[in-house]
Amino acid sequence: MKLISSLLAPAVAAAALVALPGCNPPGKSGAGDAGKSVAANSAAARTWVAPGQKDEFYLFYSGGHSGQVYVAGLPSMRHLATIPVFGRYPGTGYGYDEASKAMLGDYTWGDVHHPGLSKKDGLYDGRWLFVNDNANNRIARIDLRDFKTKQILGPIPNSMGNHGSSFVTDNTEYVLVATRFSVPLPKGRYADPANYEKEFNGMVSGIKVDPTSGTMKVGWQIITPPFDWDLGSTGKGPSEGWAFWTSYNTEMAHDNLEANASQKDRDYAAIVNWKAAEAAVNAGQTTMLDGVAVIDPAKTPGVLYYLPVPKSPHGIDVDPTGRWVVAAGKLQPVASVFDFEKLQAAIAKKDFESEFRGVPVIRYDAALEGEVPVGLGPLHTQYDGAGNAYTSLFIESAVAKWKMPPWSADERADLNKVVLDKIAVHYNIGHLVVGGSDTKKPYGKYLVAMNKLSKGRHLSVGPSQPEDSELIDITGKKMELIYEAFTEPEPHFAQILKADAISPIEVYPKAENDDPNAVWDAKDTGATRRGNVVEVKMIAIRSHFTPDRIDVNEGDELVLHVTNVEQTPDMIHGLGIVEQNVNLVIDPGETKTVRIKMTKTGVFPFYCTNFCSALHQEMQGYLAVKPAVAVATQ
Amino acid sequence: MKTFFLRESLFLRRSLSLRSRLLLLLAAVTVVAAAFLPLWQIRLVAPQYEEGLSLHIYTHKLVGGNHGQDLHEINMLNHYIGMKPLVEEDFIEMRWMPFAFGIFALLALRAAVVGRMLSLIDLGALFTYFTFFSLGSFYYRLYTYGHELNPHAPMTIKPFTPILLGSQQIANFVQTSLPQTGGVLFTLFPILIAGAIWFSRHEEP
Hints:
The complex is a heterodimer.
Chain A: H1 2-19, H2 43-47, E1 57-62, E2 68-74, E3 79-84, H3 98-104, E4 116-120, E5 123-133, E6 138-143, E7 148-153, E8 160-168, E9 174-181, E10 183-184, H4 196-199, E11 200-209, E12 216-224, E13 228-234, E14 242-248, H5 257-260, E15 266-273, H6 274-282, E16 287-289, E17 292-295, E18 304-310, E19 313-318, E20 324-329, E21 335-339, H7 340-348, E22 352-356, E23 359-362, H8 364-367, E24 368-372, E25 378-383, E26 388-393, E27 398-403, H9 409-413, E28 419-424, E29 429-434, E30 446-451, E31 467-473, E32 480-487, E33 494-498, E34 526-530, E35 533-541, E36 544-546, E37 549-553, E38 557-564, E39 573-577, E40 582-586, E41 591-597, E42 602-607, E43 620-626, H10 628-632
Parallel strand pairs in A: 12-17, 35-38, 37-43
Antiparallel strand pairs in A: 1-2, 1-33, 2-3, 4-5, 5-6, 6-7, 8-9, 9-11, 10-11, 11-12, 13-14, 14-15, 15-18, 16-17, 19-20, 20-21, 21-24, 22-23, 25-26, 26-27, 27-28, 29-30, 30-31, 31-32, 34-35, 35-36, 38-41, 39-40, 39-42, 42-43
Chain B: H1 2-13, H2 18-36, E1 40-46, E2 49-57, E3 62-64, H3 69-81, H4 93-114, H5 117-147, E4 166-170, E5 173-179, H6 181-199
Antiparallel strand pairs in B: 1-2, 1-5, 2-3, 4-5
Helix pairs in contact in B: 2-4, 2-6, 4-5, 5-6
């Protein structure tokens, strides 16, 4: 009987899998329950992904000043992988081989804030993830086929403090970026910061993305007054071809900003017609600045408008329909909802309140639909696609859920009525993310609150405390906090992607390896000397390196090409050379190269660093460096 | 005794009915198809190879599952126990096996045309001999691969014979060996021959 049931179990499981295509809902799994049982529909049941089960969504969250991107699963919040971008990462050997060293250049860190997924027709297409570097004005592209950083562009010319990034247009024509800081342009020019208003400038740029390869280059730039551009978003539907950024410091202060940049009741948002900017570049209505075609918005009407928004705003988010644009000012307890149709009408009627340096300022009331009293310190707004908006409240440590327009006359009379729910988060939330909020069809379901402080919510780890990300279920009338996870420093924004939207490769197919120094067979391995350069072609395979002995002389340069000839998933090999600071980690089917000057003499063991097989310990060899004296006397 | 021989020679001179000839035609098609389809499959399953590694044996080639990758993987694993890598070139059977299958197809067609019971009996006898010879040679292959292990290999295991039909445990692997489409068609061939004999057992000589 027992035998029969054990034979039937897989069949039943298989039948269940056939009946439930895609992922098993977490907590619903019979397999691997390990005897646990939780009340159905409890938070535990909804977030528990049983052993052997997989998450429903990917969560890509930025690592802030750690310079990396982290991948977690939802709803489990389990950390799955680290994608190194702007910093070395010994775990995958990123920043240790020649290719990634060249990509990183001289910078040892970056400040990743806002990941942006590539899109097609306003929906995620699962090809790339773009992330910005606020610190060194760069932008990077991660390929979701292998979860690797493929390109780092920058420092972007004429761009300082790449914070207002990475906002992807509907068909990934551009990733849009804007400057948080202003400096004398072109970069490298000196001017006294006291002459900030006159000598300093900001910049809004479109980074052009090649539709096939994804290769990025600077497309167009619009020079702006020295406002501090903050967050932005791209239009869709009726607002397709437009982009929006908030700014703080329209006061153009250059010192004691916390007070001096908070004097005005309104700051300007930039309303950018990027299709017009693209056309202006194609028509040659630009001047060259540091090798880039730059548009002067005063001379090229129609590319830039200003819109006043309440005091020191942070986020400006276009909703899934593309009609509503919500901006929130940290220092005012409201989210301002603008109607893109009214905005267009105001532009058509030239309903401007004034002009600033030749750029029209649209009348606030001409574009406003309403100010929703969401709470204290509103920063960012996300959408669930069901007509609701969710705004993070930094000061209040809460998320407000509110109803998007159209509003009834009754609601209009008192917009408190459209605020539907509020939930406490812990503590001081910055960004929040709802899957697909920046697309035409958000997933809804989950909201992740990325909180800046976590004090007291976890086992103490001393003063360097982790960040707290909280998972909120938004499927019901009331928001429900169902899980929290503590992360590396420091998630700013994140993107959520349905698990089945991508199918990453598990090995690099041998046929695709186009590295000229790749070898696949032991008989093709070996060393070649050209003058002082010794070039070694090596293969790594369970459980040996070929060759497993390298002979060089002091003063030589060793160029080592290692190909992992495995085609088996997870059969990663590493190559560490003791006391030579060499750390290659090579995925199956991959070739990596390192160049090292042989300055130390002696014999240096090398070994496989990434546990591969039963005889992993035996996977080793020797690098023998003969002293120059001994070589000379031979 | 004499009557037996008389009956036997009468039987062997019987001609074949239309139905039998059609069965022979079908038998020829079957054996040609078997020459192109996988005959046999060997699968290896272990905890870290849940999806299994598979080898597909054809009359003329050896193909690893997962686009050929499984053959590399099996050889990779086998190098630990000092087993010779499985290389298609080493299987000389794969050079004459398609030829042999072709001969059976031709003999079946010949019997269908000539239409004598005797050619059917010849065909059946020859086929039976061929089957046992092939299975024996396959078994011997498996035996030598499992017994001629390199004494300098990293791991020493007791020599073994991979199972020919069914499942067995080898170290951390469960090895399963089963016929596939080609193998099934191949076994259909003698049944069709037997059918052809049966349906013409009362035919006039």
